[in-house]
Amino acid sequence: MTKNTRFSPEVRQRAIRMVLESQDEYDSQWAAICSIAPKIGCTPETLACLGSPA
């Protein structure tokens, strides 16, 4: 597995915060991730990995 270095720690934190803050607006966390991923320029799978511990 490769280390993800495309996104700075600040972008990672912001993306995770966006998902957590918007979860209530969606039926699932995955739906929130799918909505936010294009806004930061990544796939939903990548965004899901950004929030998981390495």
Automatic annotation (TrEMBL):
It comes from the Bacteria. This is IS1203 transposase orfA. It comes from Escherichia coli.
